[in-house]
Design brief:
Layout: E1 6-9, E2 14-17, E3 20-26, H1 27-58, H2 62-88, H3 92-109, H4 111-124, E4 134-137, E5 140-147, E6 151-157, E7 177-185, H5 188-191, E8 195-196, E9 203-212, H6 218-251, E10 261-266, E11 271-280, H7 284-301
Antiparallel strand pairs: 1-2, 2-3, 4-5, 4-8, 5-6, 6-7, 9-11, 10-11
């Protein structure tokens, strides 16, 4: 009678296939492997259940749902690691040796991954950015839509014309979504500055520049800019004042005016009027579009033009023209 193709042999019950004994695959390790798979499946299902409950009870509170899910991911990850170690390393000496070898190998081969993982814990403190914040990270500007142990996911938005030629190419010329979703390594927070447009104070100061001729009525032009800014930002300034007061008390910063104001700059060709105003970080393009339409209508009504680079020719030196005629030619 032939022996079975697969069997457990020896005192440690090692797995043997076609008479070949497989090192390390014995009955005990088989049970550990099966138990590990069941354990990880249970952890995965519990994690999915908790995430669904967080989404159900969190409702529309994006930040609450986001940080709850991050906490669930972190806790289940720690439990999975501890459970895996408890199952496979019942001998403390083997555990210490295994951890030492594994740590040395990971530190050498996965430097970027470890740095990204460390960046994740820095971000978890909530001092760098939250989900929904508008940031610039790793050269990408947009809104944070997701975060995991290694990467941050950003919904990309357009860039101003001054950097349109930078890599990667951008076709949207203002702060509106481009449609691309960009994944950035968490390690970037240790390598480059992270610009947060909405942290603690969800408003930014914007400017619009208007060049007018020295011959035009600059005071009327200034009032036109102030009226347009006040018309479209009055509610924003009212809402921003309490937030700015709290920010000033917390960070000991100098008071900053939130009412629209016009600044002059003299050039060789025109007077440049710059109106400074407060706005929300989102929908800036819509706000500036509405202001631009009102400003153009008012300038046209008062007969004020927008200056441009032109040249006036005030005179020419005398010009003498000499025609050379071939003597052999006959006039027609």
């Amino acid at each position: 009678m032939h022996a079975p193709f697969v069997q457990f042999v020896g005192p440690t019950r090692n797995l043997q296939i076609f008479g070949v004994k497989l090192l390390g695959l014995d009955a005990q390790n088989g049970r550990k492997l099966l138990f590990s798979i069941c354990f990880l499946i249970i952890i995965f299902l519990i994690s999915k259940l908790l995430r669904a409950l967080a989404h159900l009870f969190g409702g529309r509170k994006q930040k609450t749902v986001f940080w709850t899910r991050q906490g669930i991911s972190l806790i289940t990850f720690i439990i999975a690691i501890l459970g895996f170690v408890s199952i496979w390393f019942d001998n403390p000496t083997r555990l210490a040796t295994g951890v030492g070898l594994l740590g040395a190998g990971l530190a050498f081969a996965l430097q970027k991954v470890i740095t990204s993982f460390a960046g994740y814990f820095v971000i978890l403190r909530g001092k760098t950015f939250n989900v929904g914040d508008r940031i610039t990270m790793g050269g990408v500007r947009g809104d944070v839509i997701s975060l995991n142990f290694i990467q941050t996911v950003i919904m990309e938005m357009g860039e101003p014309p001054s950097v349109q030629a930078d890599d990667p190419g951008m076709w949207v010329e203002s702060r509106q979504y481009s449609g691309r979703i960009v994944t950035v390594s968490n390690s970037k927070i240790f390598e480059e500055p992270v610009y947060n447009y909405t942290r603690d104070f969800p408003y930014i100061w914007e400017e619009m520049h208007l060049p007018i001729s020295y011959k035009d009525d600059r005071r009327t032009a200034e009032q036109i800019l102030l009226d347009a800014a006040a018309k479209h930002t009055v509610k924003i300034t009212e809402l921003a004042e309490p937030a700015l007061t709290i920010r000033r008390e917390r960070f000991f910063i100098e008071p900053a005016g939130i009412q629209p104001r016009v600044y002059y700059r003299l050039t060789d060709n025109w007077i440049e009027l710059a109106v400074r105003f407060l706005c929300r970080e989102h929908n800036v393009r819509t706000l500036k579009d509405a202001m631009s339409r009102d400003i153009l209508d008012a300038l046209e009504k008062h007969g004020i033009g927008i200056a441009s680079g032109t040249y006036d020719i005030v005179g020419l030196p005398p010009v003498h023209v000499t025609l050379d005629r071939d003597p052999s030619s006959t006039p027609r």
